[in-house]
Target: Helix-hairpin-helix domain-containing protein
Amino acid sequence: MSSHGDDDIPSSLGAPARRALAGAGYTTLTQVASMTEQQLLRLHGMGPKAIRQLRAALAERDLTLADQET
Model:
């Protein structure tokens, strides 16, 4: 089990994606849940695999990404 908090970005997420989130000021899954998939994909280093991993981590905590922009 990880020594990190339950809301931390998963350490299993690829380093480029973790750096992208940190660089944008997102350090917790609750913060990530406020973003849409499109917003995440705009971050350099964030790709489809990272999105899938984040969605899974959010689902484990009964969280989801924000609704898509219209």
Observations:
- The chain has a mean pLDDT of 91.
